[in-house]
Amino acid sequence: MHCPFCRHADSRVVDSRTSDDGASIRRRRQCPACNRRFTTIETASLSVVKRSGVTEPFSREKIVTGVRKACQGRPVNEDDLAVLAQKVEESLRAGGSAELDAYEIGLAILGPLRELDEVAYLRFASVYQAFDSLEDFETAINSLRAEREERAASFGEADARTADDEPSGDVVPDQV
């Protein structure tokens, strides 16, 4: 690591700490030539292999830009998009691979986008999965409906269980 002050070709690590929940390492360094200290932040790089075979660095901003188009006119704000991009990056990093196909990134976007906004999900999926017909849309919509009904049914069961388990409030006198 070159010293940013005197451009000496080497530096010594004085202290290391993890940051960003373990996603990066913050290193405090000292130059042996000028004795000045500076900080570096190291992260594991992710590379994206595009369909054309070109490799480029992973970018959260590209995810936000792509999803923003699907969210036009929807009640989704920039913070929601930033959180979605973070979730996608975390899930991709959890996979443990340093090189990812662009297709894998699209798949990783679909889940969090589905949770965020169903209409935006359909828009993104229609382009990403190359919907060719109304039947493709119908299949996707039916899948969303089934998932929503399943969640509602499991939520209703949870409400029923807690209502049965709770005391009724009636006071029963002790038997003497």
Describe this structure in words.
The chain is an alpha+beta fold. The protein has a three-stranded antiparallel β-sheet with strand order 1-2-3, with no helix packed on it. The longest helix has 32 residues, at 134-165. Mean pLDDT is 85; it is low at 160-173. The protein is elongated. It folds into two domains: 12-43; 47-152, no CATH class. Helices cover 49% and strands 18% of the residues. It has helices spanning 60-70, 78-94, 102-116, 118-128, 134-165, and strands at 12-19, 24-30, 37-43, 47-49, 55-57, 99-101. Helix 2 packs across helix 3 (102-116). Strand 4 and strand 5 (55-57) form a beta hairpin.
Keywords:
RNR_NrdR-like, single chain, elongated, 2 domains, alpha+beta
* Total separate domains: 2
Q: Strand-residue fraction?
A: 15-25%
Secondary structural class: alpha+beta
Number of helical segments with 4 or more residues: 5
Q: Unreliable stretches, pLDDT < 50, 5 or more residues?
A: 160-173
Ends: how far apart?
Answer: 84 Å
Helix content: 40-55%
Question: How much is the average pLDDT?
Answer: 85
Would you count the extended β strands for me?
6
Biggest β-sheet, characterized?
3 strands, antiparallel
Listing every helix as H and every strand as E from the N terminus to the C terminus, the arrangement reads: EEEEEHHEHHH
Molecular shape: elongated
Radius of gyration: 26 Å
Largest sheet, order of strands side by side? 1-2-3
Protein name: Transcriptional repressor NrdR
GO molecular function, one term: ATP binding
Cofactor: Zn(2+)
Domain ATP-cone: 46-136
Helix-strand layout with pairing:
Blueprint: E1 12-19, E2 24-30, E3 37-43, E4 47-49, E5 55-57, H1 60-70, H2 78-94, E6 99-101, H3 102-116, H4 118-128, H5 134-165
Parallel strand pairs: 4-6
Antiparallel strand pairs: 1-2, 2-3, 4-5
